[in-house]
TrEMBL record:
Chain ranges of the Thioredoxin domain: 1-109
The protein, known as: DUF1000-domain-containing protein
PROSITE patterns cross-referenced by the UniProt entry: PITH, THIOREDOXIN_1, THIOREDOXIN_2
Compositional bias of kind Gly residues: 114-127
PITH domain boundaries: 128-324
């Protein structure tokens, strides 16, 4: 997964403006309180939306890169600027996470050639088919990436963070687009069970979950991983459950998937009993078994659809600092 780029020279910044279609820039200072407050939000956006040579997130320290700050008329911290094909198209002053998220996601959606499923009801998610439930949006970006945990996964495949990535799975790409790419999915290891812990940055109302699973066609004697069949969901657990522990705790909801539940993108929609998922701070997904006789289960992506509520650790954002000389 791409990481935020720390700018160390004007040339590096200029080169990125030329090589990446969209460049999202965080102008900050080490002494700036609001900069530190909003930094985790920026890093979350970077982790979920960065695309090599397409969408790049960078940070510019105004004290060490005064030439860049002066060129773009940066007078207060934090200031966020979005560049599209080298041209500034958005400038946001202050630590306003909602305004920052809305601006970045809107442009990212346009860059993907259509809606990315963020923020607006009725929109798809690029490679996904179908509309979101009316009145709800993709809230997968509220997953606390640092707290994600996955039990019984094979280390030869992608890490847990790939599950909540917004990128199109290589399983849906063909030819050169998929050739040589890393294994951007998860497979179980010793048996078909997987246990995923997803904590959230905000308290959510979760309406729907989507699981994408793209096992390849069977070839000769090669064992093909299975799609999930039985999924048990637990809410507001403080940590991941052990497999034996999950057997002793009633799930909030259990769902059994069948072949007809998987659409053309290999995605199954899990409709939740919404009344039970009103104040959710974390989810545990226990994939109990697969849809066949194999020993491995494959999961490519997971998507959370609902409403975002209050931050889990609410605190007043400081106002924008004094103008920087």
């Amino acid at each position: 997964m791409s990481k935020t780029v720390q700018i160390s020279s004007p040339k590096q910044f200029d080169d990125l403006l030329k090589s990446s279609k969209i460049v999202v820039t965080d102008f900050y200072a080490d002494w700036c309180g609001p900069c530190k407050t909003i930094a985790p939000v920026y890093e979350q956006l970077s982790a979920s939306l960065s695309r090599p040579n397409h969408i790049t997130f960078v940070k510019v320290n105004v004290d060490t890169q005064k030439e860049i700050a002066a060129k773009h008329d940066i007078t207060a911290m934090p200031t966020f600027m979005i560049f599209n094909q080298g041209q500034a198209v958005e400038k946001i002053k202050g630590a306003d996470p909602r305004k920052l998220q809305a601006a970045v996601k809107k442009l990212a959606a346009e860059a993907e050639g259509g809606s990315s499923g963020f923020g607006a009801s009725g929109s798809g998610s690029g490679w996904r088919t179908g509309d979101l439930p009316r009145g709800y949006s993709d809230v997968t970006d509220q997953v606390d990436l640092k707290g994600l945990e996955l039990l019984n996964s094979d280390s030869e495949f992608g890490g847990v963070r790939i599950l909540v990535d917004q990128s199109k799975p290589t399983g849906l790409q063909k030819g050169k687009a998929a050739a040589g790419k890393d294994k951007d999915w998860v497979e179980s290891d010793t048996d078909e069970q997987l246990m995923l812990f997803m904590p959230f940055q905000s308290t959510l109302k979760v309406h729907t979950l989507q699981i994408t699973s793209l096992p390849p066609p069977a070839e000769d004697d090669e064992e093909v991983p299975m799609r999930p069949k039985t999924v048990q969901i637990y809410i507001n657990r403080p940590h991941i459950l052990g497999f034996e522990e999950a057997d002793d705790i009633p799930s909030t909801q259990a769902i059994t998937l069948s072949e007809k539940d998987w659409d053309s993108t290999g995605t199954a929609t899990l409709s939740l009993r919404f009344v039970k998922f009103q104040n959710v701070t974390s989810l545990v997904l226990f994939i109990v078994d697969g849809d066949g006789e194999g020993e491995r289960v494959r999961v490519d992506r997971i998507r959370v659809i609902g409403e975002t509520g209050e931050k889990r650790d609410p605190g007043k954002l400081e106002k924008v600092g004094d103008d920087h000389d």
